[in-house]
């Protein structure tokens, strides 16, 4: 049995919104009114997930997790809507903010993409929600172009990964807030910009350490049992050790790899020894679903395709296991690689500032990663702007995949479409990338910063869906590294000082010094899961092939199923080649659950009778 989805919708303060309110409140477990008495926020969310402050006719709701108390929220609200973005920028945690002042509504998610907003027209007014399926009728038509984008590996980024897959539902960009007027109209207002990278690593480390500690505290302060991955890597180990300081009860969790060459287990054993008061759950490899298990079975109610569908069953199994141990909130280390690894990207800026230093470090990277000499020189010398890079990427969707042996310092993800993508799919993706090039602006001040922001957002959009899986088992998923304040602290640091080929995640190592003991900081390896991938593929190949029969994606003109079947049954020399297969089958699985014949408008979820206030 799956738990019903958590969701909310936001309505403008106008009589014209009454029909939309009636439709949405029929499915809501909670209703929070405007000062006028009209419905403002309706939906269903978990205990302790929402805070509400009221100051006369003005009100501010925080839905999510934060260390901010009522006094802080009241102060933020006192400045009115014109200053609310500035006054709430430094709040720790991960959450949605919704304010109502003088009949206007202001709402935002997180800059990381973990918390998102969508909008659509319902009975003549614009309505916001945190899920696309809260705004769309069952059977609403899908957007083939948005689905074509989801075939690309890696995701194209540049905001394109945020495109809603249902027609008529639009995404609010992660760095923008939505403002609902008293007439039911909507406008977008930018609330987040990347900080300038002006701090030295030495000056910025304390802020990174504080941001991470606050991010964890935002999850443990509600007390009760908190779970945390403990894989043996720096990211999850840091979170577990931080959580142990403030959690009432900590349950650590890891599943063993089927690959005996993966040394995560040895490092996880060392980390567990540092947490004698915690409950430690270690699941043997033969007791947890393999990768690609039941990939042809329907997923719980997800509002978008799941790109990491290979581990869906393993994720659901883990969430149910955690729930059985009393865990209602679980943390993982997603975002640690996105923020702290891959520092060679800073070589491009270093080459402009200190050419000889950059050449020395580039030579070291070249020796370690086998970069070709001339390709490295051309990449370092390239000074083309963001728009040209995006247009160039639109024309390279069929190019060979970028590997660690390719020096990459560009603005734009090297997105590639698989050979089973049709010409129509290519044109959809390339067309949207070219259109974005005409108006898109960089997300940050430097190439390296921009790439990190885009990588974080791509990860955030995926984690949002993984959280939906966890919630279907009654557990909330938290990713402290993807909190906006953590991202801001990292982006504030001059990364050219971090591109050292001989140091692994140097910024995280310094920020966690005193939390991670020296013996764990000596690790120089990283768990690799090709063995799990190929074992799962061989065991569940028939389930993958089942999804290639009568494909909805093929009906939409996006995929050649014969070419996809050939790829599934053919030889694979690296597990990275499975990513495109997984992305395609994730989209197909979602379509099979979602794309039904057109039906009359009805509430998005089964009706609930309980009406309550925010808690």
From TrEMBL:
Q: Name one Pfam family in it.
A: Asn_synthase
Query: Which reactions are catalysed by this chain?
Result: L-aspartate + L-glutamine + ATP + H2O = L-asparagine + L-glutamate + AMP + diphosphate + H(+)
**Ranges of residues in domain Asparagine synthetase:** 208-592
State the residue spans of region: Disordered: 596-615
Write out the pathway annotation from the protein's UniProt entry: Amino-acid biosynthesis; L-asparagine biosynthesis; L-asparagine from L-aspartate (L-Gln route): step 1/1
The record ties this protein, via InterPro entries, to:
Asn_synthase (IPR001962), ASN_synthetase/amidase (IPR051786), Rossmann-like_a/b/a_fold (IPR014729)
Query: Keyword Protein biosynthesis, does the record have it?
Result: no
Keyword annotations for this protein, in alphabetical order, are: Amino-acid biosynthesis, Asparagine biosynthesis
EC numbers for this chain: 6.3.5.4
Q: Which SUPFAM superfamilies does this UniProt record tie to the protein?
A: Adenine nucleotide alpha hydrolases-like (SSF52402)
- The protein's name is asparagine synthase (glutamine-hydrolyzing)
Classification of source organism: Bacteria, Bacillati, Actinomycetota, Actinomycetes, Streptosporangiales
């Amino acid at each position: 049995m799956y738990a019903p989805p958590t969701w909310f919708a936001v309505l403008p303060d106008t009589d014209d919104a009454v029909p939309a309110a009636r439709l949405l409140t029929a499915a809501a477990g909670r209703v929070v009114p405007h000062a006028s008495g009209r419905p403002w926020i309706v939906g269903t969310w978990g205990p302790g997930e929402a805070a509400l402050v009221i100051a006369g006719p003005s009100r501010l709701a925080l839905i999510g997790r934060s260390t901010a108390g009522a006094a802080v929220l009241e102060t933020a609200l006192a400045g009115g809507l014109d200053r609310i973005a500035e006054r709430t920028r430094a709040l720790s945690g991960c959450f949605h903010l919704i304010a109502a002042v003088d009949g206007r509504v202001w709402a935002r998610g997180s800059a990381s993409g973990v918390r998102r907003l969508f909008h659509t027209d319902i009975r003549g007014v614009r309505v916001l929600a945190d899920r696309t399926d809260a705004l769309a009728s069952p059977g609403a038509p899908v957007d083939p172009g948005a689905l074509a984008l989801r075939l690309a590996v890696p995701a194209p980024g540049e905001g394109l990964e945020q495109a809603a897959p249902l027609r008529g539902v639009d995404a609010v960009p992660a760095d923008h807030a939505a403002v609902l007027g008293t007439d039911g109209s909507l406008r977008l207002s930018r609330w987040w910009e990347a900080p300038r990278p002006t701090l030295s690593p030495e000056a910025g480390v304390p802020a990174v350490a504080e941001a991470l500690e606050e991010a964890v505290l935002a999850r443990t302060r509600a007390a009760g049992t908190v779970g945390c991955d403990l894989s043996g890597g720096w990211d999850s180990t840091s979170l577990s050790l931080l959580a142990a300081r403030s959690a009432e009860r900590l349950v650590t969790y890891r599943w063993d790899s089927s690959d005996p060459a993966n040394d995560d287990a040895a490092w996880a054993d060392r980390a567990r020894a540092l947490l004698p008061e915690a409950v430690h759950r270690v699941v043997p490899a033969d007791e947890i679903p393999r990768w690609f298990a039941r990939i042809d079975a329907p997923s719980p109610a997800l509002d978008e395709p799941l790109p990491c569908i290979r581990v869906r069953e393993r994720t659901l199994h883990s969430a149910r296991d955690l729930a059985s141990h009393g865990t209602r909130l679980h943390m993982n280390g997603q975002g640690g690689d996105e923020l702290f690894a891959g520092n060679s990207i800073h070589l491009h800026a270093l080459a402009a500032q200190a050419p000889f230093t950059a050449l020395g470090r580039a030579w070291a990277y070249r020796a370690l990663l086998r970069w070709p000499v001339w390709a490295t020189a051309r990449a370092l010398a390239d000074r083309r702007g963001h728009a040209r890079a995006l247009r160039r990427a639109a024309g390279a969707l069929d190019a060979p995949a970028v590997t660690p042996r390719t020096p990459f310092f560009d603005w734009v993800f090297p997105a590639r479409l698989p050979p089973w993508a049709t010409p129509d799919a290519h044109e959809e993706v390339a067309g949207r990338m070219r259109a974005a090039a005409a108006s898109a602006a960089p997300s940050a001040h430097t190439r390296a910063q921009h790439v990190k922001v885009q990588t974080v957002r791509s990860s955030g959009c995926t984690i949002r869906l993984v959280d939906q899986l966890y919630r279907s088992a009654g557990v909330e998923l938290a990713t402290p590294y993807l909190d906006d304040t953590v991202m801001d602290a990292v982006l504030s640091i001059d990364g050219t000082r971090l591109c050292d080929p001989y140091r692994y995640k140097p910024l995280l190592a310094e920020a966690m010094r005193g939390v991670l003991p020296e013996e764990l900081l000596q690790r120089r390896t990283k768990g690799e899961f090709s063995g799990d991938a190929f074992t799962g593929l061989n065991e569940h190949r028939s389930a993958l092939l089942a999804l290639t029969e009568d494909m909805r994606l093929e009906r939409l003109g996006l995929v050649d199923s014969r070419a996809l079947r050939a790829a599934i049954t053919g030889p694979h020399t690296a597990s990275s080649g499975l990513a495109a297969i997984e992305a395609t089958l994730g989209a197909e699985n979602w379509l099979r659950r979602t794309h039904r014949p057109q039906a009359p408008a009805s509430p998005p979820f089964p009706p609930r009778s309980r009406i309550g206030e925010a808690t």
